[in-house]
Amino acid sequence: MQKKAHLMELEAPVLALGLMSGTSCDGVDLALIRTDGEDAFEPVANGFHAYSADQKALLGQAIKAAKGMEDRTDRSGVLAEAEALVTQHHIEAAQVFLDSLDENVSRPDLIGFHGQTVWHDPAKGVTVQLGDGEALSNILNCPVVFDLRANDMEHGGEGAPMVPAFHRLLAAKQELLRPCAFVNIGGVSNITWIGSEDELTAFDCGPGNALIDDLVRRKLNKDMDEGGRLAMAGQVDFLALVGLIGNPYFQKRAPKSLDRNAFDASVVESLGVEDAVATLTAFTVETICLGLEQMEQLKGEQPTCLVVCGGGQHNPAIIGQLQGALDCEVRRADDLGLQGDALEAQAFAYLAVRSSRGLPLTFPGTTGVHEPVSGGVMVGG
């Protein structure tokens, strides 16, 4: 805890490593940045450490076992095995990444460790991320900030999305005209709306890649719809699409958040693989468009641009459909010079520094929390 006090006293930027394993469950994204947790931001390096097929299978079992959890500390059965896997894999990822850096790059002052979400139920105030932050800190000999979502929920928030404060920083650095929006398309899709006065509104708008990935893995034993080829070869089943969009979640006002398995995609199960993927891809796109439309109605203004980040930015079917459906400019994060695949890891490095300095991580407009709050547990140092 002395290290935390030391970091909080510093106003100068520090070197922070962010570790993010998202709802796609494909591996660990790593990002080293220099930041003060406020306006200073310099990306230093980033990397990725994939999960093996067996490891993905174990995480899938843990997600199934965690469904309906009410005690977020429960690690019975497969959850204990999965937590050990997540912790060890993050340790290995960090060691390999840090050893690969140029010898002139310093070791990080702080690590932001998200962990692996296996269950998220905001209605009951429960969010479960696997991963042992203390073990990570001990092995890597570095202070670690983890469990970043819980304090938001304890103060009436949804516990998600967590990244909007970082999106606002990027919008400022890129000098984007406001209002503008970011959409992160991971396992789940979430929108950050940055208003004309820099005010933040954010929410999970619907599915991202998870439904598509799960179907392709189940039907073809592949990890994803590479290059959007299946979606572009298939035909959308509009009856199935209407049924999916009829979910009452889409009528709820923001802020709101989702578990990765919130939607039942069995309606496309009888379709051919290409048509099923085309339909699920359209579902992802339509719900992003619906979320933006709701924001336009709420704010009375249209975004100047939409920045797409996460794995979805590499899917031409998604990008093409968004460009065809929206009046605003649609830009991939990579095309702006941002490191789109690393943004969430960068964000959790940034949030770890904010946490260490007692700065708020979430806001009423981003999670529904009663007031801006910090969060996270810090160990080590």
Automatic annotation (TrEMBL):
InterPro entries: Anhydro_N_Ac-Mur_kinase, ATPase_NBD. It catalyses: 1,6-anhydro-N-acetyl-beta-muramate + ATP + H2O = N-acetyl-D-muramate 6-phosphate + ADP + H(+). ATP binds at G22, T23, S24, C25, D26, G27, V28, D29. Transmembrane segments: none annotated. It is an enzyme of class 2 (transferase). Keywords: ATP-binding, Carbohydrate metabolism, Kinase, Nucleotide-binding, Transferase. SUPFAM superfamilies: Actin-like ATPase domain. Its EC number is 2.7.1.170. This is Anhydro-N-acetylmuramic acid kinase. It comes from Cohaesibacter gelatinilyticus.
